[in-house]
Specification:
alpha/beta; TIM Barrel; eight-stranded parallel beta barrel; 10 helices; 46% helix; binds cytidine-5'-monophosphate
């Protein structure tokens, strides 16, 4: 299991300071809307300057018509990031179009699809998608696998079922992790490390429990010791 740290701080300066504090650990960094919209490509380059071995997950959750998603994916691949994501609800054709466009790029990034946001509970999800979350998340995962993507973003609660319905190498990346039972904040389906391990999760994403703590490096160290 790998740790992916969400760099969701309010400025590039603070995110880079966090990256410096944890630069000696073997971790992935998740760059999301906030940081990428504000700080762009230069921010990614600055992270690699702190530690060229940092792996970067660009979490922009693409959702658009197939050709637009493929264009954006090609541009993302050129940025040299290690992983990015799309929404599975954009559909199988969109996901296939993305994979066809980037499949021959050397060292192409891993591509994941979001099944259900971890801020949704079953009622929230059903209101939008008209089906129960568990059933639909598994269906989204199967579609993602058929379309040739590398894995899904899901909650720890769906990870094992998704692997059972696809294959064990199909990656699951789970936000909503509160490593040692910390406060859930706006997340509705949170899990701790023990649970994530039991559910065979490949990547746990942790944001606030690390970057809001007094000593992020110690929290990272404790998480890595536990996983
Ligand atoms: O602070 P916290 O640990 O809740 O951060 C979780 C991170 O994972 C945030 O950057 C959030 O945008 C992201 N995320 C999520 N749920 C998803 C996909 C991404 O919480 N399904």
């Amino acid at each position: 299991m790998k740790l992916c740290i969400a760099l969701d701080l309010p400025s590039a300066k603070e995110n880079l300071a966090l990256a410096k504090e944890i630069k000696d650990f073997d971790v992935w960094l998740k760059v999301g809307f906030r940081a990428y919209i504000r700080d762009g490509k230069e921010f990614l380059e600055n992270l690699k300057m702190i530690n060229p071995n940092f792996k970067i997950f660009l979490d922009l959750k693409l959702y658009d018509i197939p050709n637009t998603m493929a264009d954006a994916s090609e541009e993302i691949a050129k940025l040299g990031v290690d992983m990015f994501n799309v929404h599975a609800s954009a559909g199988k054709i969109a996901m296939q179009t993305v994979m066809n466009r980037i499949k021959d790029i050397p060292n192409r990034p891993l591509v994941l699809a979001v099944t259900a946001l971890t801020s949704f509970d079953n009622n929230d999800f059903k209101e939008i998608y008209g089906q129960d979350l568990d059933t639909k998340a598994t269906q989204f995962a199967k579609d993602t696998n058929t379309a040739g993507l590398d894995g899904v973003v899901c909650s720890a609660f769906e990870s094992k079922d998704i692997k059972d319905n696809t294959n064990k190498d199909f990656i699951t990346l789970t936000p909503g992790i509160r490593p040692f039972g910390e406060d859930a904040q706006d997340q509705k389906r949170v899990a701790d490390i023990n649970f994530a391990k039991k559910e065979l999760v490949d990547f746990i994403v942790v944001g606030r429990p690390i970057y809001k703590s007094e000593n992020p490096a110690t929290v990272v160290k404790n998480i890595l010791a536990k996983i």
